[in-house]
Write a structure and sequence with these properties.
mainly beta, four-stranded antiparallel beta sheet, single chain, Immunoglobulin-like, 182 residues, five-stranded antiparallel beta sheet, disordered N terminus
């Protein structure tokens, strides 16, 4: 059993908020509510119905949804921004969705660094993201070791970033990532 509630990580950039988990003491006008949800499906009256419940205790093979609801409580429009989330080593990226027109998902294979106390991502400014990230592998060709750049796979992803076009005054957005527990 894996406790993933404590490793849901994200960072906001460009929205006037330096980071992450929203708290009552946070005076930022950008409020973030994060949740880890277990995704289950059942058939009801011949239709497949999806149910989302607390996902803090997940078993291998189960699907989780890491959800971030972001609200701009101010009267100020914010320009472009980013929502960054680490992909913990105990899960495998599956898919993502964001209800913001123009939001673009990018991925990284770089190592992530977490603050030991807050578990917030501390090196998000040094992580390289791309829509189709690559990795370097060493292969043998004609008896010699050669380094090649190849497309990264979901197994290689360590973080995901949604590049967002902006966040208007009073607006709310919701972005989700689905992962499978290893």
């Amino acid at each position: 059993m894996t406790n993933l509630k404590t490793i849901l990580l994200l960072t906001l950039a460009g929205f006037g908020a330096a980071s992450a988990q929203s708290t009552a003491a946070n005076s930022s006008p950008i409020k973030v509510v994060s949740s880890t949800l277990l995704v289950t499906q059942s058939v009801v009256n011949g239709k497949t119905v999806e149910k989302l419940t607390d996902g803090s205790q997940a078993l291998p093979g189960q699907t989780l949804e890491f959800r971030q609801n972001v609200q701009n409580t101010s009267k100020t429009n914010y320009g472009k921004g980013a929502l960054v989330q680490a992909i913990p080593g105990g899960v495998l990226y599956q898919s993502n969705q964001c209800n913001v027109p123009g939001a673009v998902a990018t991925f990284s294979t770089d190592p992530v660094q977490l603050d030991p106390k807050t578990k917030a991502l501390v090196n998000s400014n040094r992580i390289i993201f791309a829509e189709k990230p690559t990795k370097t592998v060493t292969v043998k060709e004609n008896g010699a070791e050669v380094k090649k750049t190849v497309a990264a796979t979901a197994e290689d992803y360590t973080a995901m970033r949604w590049n967002l076009p902006g966040l208007n005054a009073g607006a709310s957005i919701s972005c989700q990532m689905r992962v499978k527990v290893k």
